[in-house]
Design brief:
2 copies of one chain form a homodimer.
Chain A (H helix, E strand, L loop, with lengths): L34 H7 L3 H13 L16 H14 L2 E6 L2 E6 L1 H7 L3 H6 L5
Antiparallel strand pairs in A: 1-2
Chain A binds a DNA duplex through α3.
Chain lengths: 125, 125
Amino acid sequence: MAAAAQYVTTENSALDAPENLPDPLPEPLIGELQLEDVMGALADPLRLTIVRKLMLESDSYDHTCGWFGFDRPKSSLTHHFKALRQAGLIRQRQYGLERRSRVRTEDLNDRFPGLLDLVASWHEA
Amino acid sequence: MAAAAQYVTTENSALDAPENLPDPLPEPLIGELQLEDVMGALADPLRLTIVRKLMLESDSYDHTCGWFGFDRPKSSLTHHFKALRQAGLIRQRQYGLERRSRVRTEDLNDRFPGLLDLVASWHEA
DNA sequence: TGCTATGTTCGAGATTACTCGTACAGACCA
DNA sequence: TGGTCTGTACGAGTAATCTCGAACATAGCA
């Protein structure tokens, strides 16, 4: 994988939602998204599953790490969620104890149109 | 990256071309293409460049390893071309001394529609 | 205060990938 | 026969990644 983009904390507390959400964790800006990083992040079956499940089964809102029901140690999950966030695939916000994730659908469709469709049509092995 | 698919030598000497081409080197069949392998292969800038250049500048036919003009040792190039072939992104045929490559456009568009468009619209860093 | 639940950070070990030099193989040609 | 040119195979060193255990941090609650 290529070098990750530098992080910038985006401030949009009152812009993208009526309710004031917690600020997102550090993530690359839209213009900093790198195709090679995104590809590298999706080169792992577990991470592919995370993004796909978030896209298709996330009824209304962000989901916690435990919502996925993976039988893996917590530190492993932290690792993969962090990889997805640093590549720009998901946005994470801290809600008290829980850290909830959502797919950066708008940004990704804007920058890499068709990419999320590939993930959605992926059938797990 | 996930485990690579098993190889099968496809025999299509008289099917896909009027002229009889040399048989392709071992490569995964269409049904064996794995999204995570493809993503992993495209997670490298040099390999992204290879596929993109083959797509956009390959006027009529397959191209050799040296056509790209990379300033890298030969063994490194072999490594990356092999990675692309094993992931199913390119097809390689042996023409005497030269090993020529082309993108598996039809297969990829059939299996992962939109993927090659992402590669084509990639701007190199 | 103490317990529980969520998730992080750190570090180690194992595995995989990348890079490259060297040696080798085969086709072509003088 | 010998030289050149294309590209492979193998191995070593380096770097990155994956996986996981252990210890830690914090919010909520009784």
